[in-house]
Design a protein that fits this description.
The chain is α/β, with parallel strands linked by helices and about 120 residues long. About 25% of the residues lie in helices and about 10% in strands. A four-stranded parallel beta sheet has the order 1-2-3-4, with helices on one face.
Length: about 120
Amino acid sequence: MLIHSSAGFEKDALQGQHADVVFLGIGTLGTQPKEFQETYWKEVVARVGARRVIPIHWDNFFLPLDQPLQAGPRPFDNIENSMQFLLDKGKQEKVDIRLAPVWVVIDPFFGLIKPAEMSNLK
């Protein structure tokens, strides 16, 4: 598992690392050019071979956490753009994209097939 809290990256920083699940920071990703978004995905998600991405760091930090989460305000972010990018990339590359519920314990690996079991699929 990898927790990548910022929508930034350093080229090749994750070379040789593996994570089935990435908690991916997407704050301000929706305002970035498509080229940046593609490189971010490649350097963080694809680089580690993730099979599931759970977006984090997308909510409005100025609202109290006892309220329902809301996306960060424009013009600072564009959550619709971020999520559409993630859903499209997930579909293209067969990576499961899921939002985590608030204040609920989750198993981020639930439902993922273990790599050793993948050869048994027909």
